[in-house]
Amino acid sequence: MARYTGFFIVNVGIEDLRPMMIDILESCNLEITYQTPSSIIAREALGQVTVQELVIAEVVFDTATSTVNETKMTVYIKNEALALQSTNHCRGIFEQVSQLIIDNRHWVLLESIAL
């Protein structure tokens, strides 16, 4: 199973950040399947890649420490395919989502770590 994790801190409150993260996920062709106040789950639609390569994205907001001006979030991108090559579909989606978070003009990225 391929799994990539990114930690981000941005200078936006969680209520404003949630719709912007939904836009980012949807712009990467991921459909929102489930939402709670502290998370968003999205998946890739059937038809673009094999079933094993279908990506699931999960964004978890740290509601315990978020403030009006700062939110910590963790982004998980995973699929069932083995990551036998460093360049694979799951990593490509992870890099695309991460870059959109880093380059977003609606906030200042305060910190980021990718694993």
* Distance between the first and last residues' Cα: 15 Å
Number of DSSP E strands: 6
> What percent of the residues sit in helical stretches (DSSP H or I)?
25-40%
Query: What are the low-pLDDT stretches, counting only 5+ consecutive residues below 50?
Result: none
Largest sheet: spatial strand order: 2-3-4-5-1-6
CATH architecture: 2-Layer Sandwich
Assign the structural class, choosing from mainly alpha, mainly beta, alpha/beta, alpha+beta, or little secondary structure: alpha+beta
Key descriptive features of the protein:
2 helices, six-stranded antiparallel sheet, 115 residues, TATA-Binding Protein, alpha+beta
Secondary structure elements and pairings:
Layout: E1 2-10, H1 14-27, E2 30-36, E3 39-44, E4 56-61, E5 71-79, H2 89-103, E6 109-114
Antiparallel strand pairs: 1-5, 1-6, 2-3, 3-4, 4-5
